[in-house]
Write a structure and sequence with these properties.
This protein is 43% helix and 17% strand. By secondary structure, it is of the alpha/beta class.
C-alpha cells in the first residue's frame, strides 16, 4: 500500500481519486496549472504543486514537471486519471525509471493498446475471444 500518491489530473476525476485515497488513509498530492490554483481538486488534496501555465500543454501534459513534483513531495506513485498522460508510454516508463509506481497499465501494455495488431495479439494470448 502506498503512503502518498500524486494525482496527475484535475477536475472531478482528481477529486474522486483524492476522496478514495483519503478513505484508504493515503495522503495525496495535487498538481495544478496557474488557472487552477483555487480549483476543487487542489483543495481536496493534502499537498499541491504548481506545474505550469494555464494551457494543458504548459502544465498537465508536462511529464517532466509532474515527475519532478512526485519526486519533490515523496510520492510513491502517480495516478494519471483519464486523458492527459494516462495513455502515454513515455510517462509510464519515466515513472518506472524514477522508482515511482504508475497506477495504470505497464508501459508495454500502453504501447500494445496503441497498435491494433499488437492489441489483438495480446488479447489472443490472454484467451480473450
Amino acid at each position: 500500500m502506498f503512503h502518498k500518491i500524486l494525482i496527475a489530473n484535475r477536475g472531478e476525476i482528481a477529486c474522486r481519486v483524492a476522496a478514495t485515497a483519503r478513505r484508504l488513509g493515503i495522503r495525496t498530492v495535487a498538481v495544478y496549472s496557474e488557472a487552477d490554483a483555487q480549483a476543487q481538486h487542489v483543495m481536496a488534496c493534502d499537498e499541491a504543486v504548481l506545474i505550469g501555465g494555464p494551457a494543458p500543454r504548459d502544465s498537465y501534459l508536462r511529464a517532466d514537471a509532474i515527475l519532478a513534483a512526485a519526486l519533490a513531495t515523496g510520492a510513491q506513485a502517480v495516478h494519471p486519471g483519464y486523458g492527459f498522460l494516462s495513455e502515454n508510454t513515455g510517462f509510464a516508463q519515466a515513472c518506472a525509471d524514477a522508482g515511482i509506481a504508475f497506477i495504470g497499465p505497464p508501459p508495454a501494455a500502453i504501447a500494445a493498446m496503441g497498435s491494433k495488431s499488437a492489441a489483438k495479439a495480446l488479447m489472443e494470448q490472454a484467451g480473450v475471444p
